[in-house]
Amino acid sequence: MDIILIPGLWLNGSTWDKVAPVLASAGHRTHALTLPGMASKDADRSGITLRDHVDAVVDVIDSLAGQVVLVGHSGGGAIAHAAVDKRPDRVARVVYVDSWPLGHGGVINDELPVANGEIPLPDWSVFEPEDLVDLTEDLRAAFRERAIPSPVRVASDQQELSDERRYDVPVTVIACEVSSETIQGWMQPDHPWHSAVRELTKIRDVTHVDLPTGHWPQFTRPKELGQVILDSVGPA
After folding, report:
1. N or C: which end of the chain has fewer CB within 10 A?
2. What is the pTM for the complete model shown?
3. H/E run at residue 91
4. For the AB hydrolase-1 domain, which residue ranges apply (predicted)?
């Protein structure tokens, strides 16, 4: 199976370096994406949009034969969901890593601090304590060293969806900083957080898996993350 790995904000394809080998060892073909504007800290990101990132994923889907699996971390989950909307007949499963599908009209995060027309990795104080679980000082330093500013419009552009066949594609939600029980509670219609996961409630086949750690399991628990993804995808 071809597994397309989509990073979240501030990260490129190298974020999956310790995860992909677990999948490859089971016979899967991995494609760790570096999305437009994310090749280096010096890249030109000024005109990059959310649609550009979605189109980049769709282009990879179109370049491959047969069914694919999409894995999206954090904001990459929104990109994965939009790619499913474009190619619902080509995606066998979507795996959301500490993420869930973003509905039409939603934004990834339009409240992040902007500097010089882009979004650098903020100070750690901007994040919630749950985000930073297991992210040691050494891991924080390595993360900040490799972090690439994200294009403003990727975080702030509205999600555009149009094909309801996206709800037929099975998904796995890997819960890290909050438990799967908590997320399922949010999915109840009377819960105050229901609107945040409304799109998830419309998907017909949802599997919830717990991987307790912070928001970046590819750094804090990479081998375990690879195994959870592998368990979700099945044998090659």
Report:
1. C
2. 0.97
3. strand 91-97
4. 3-225
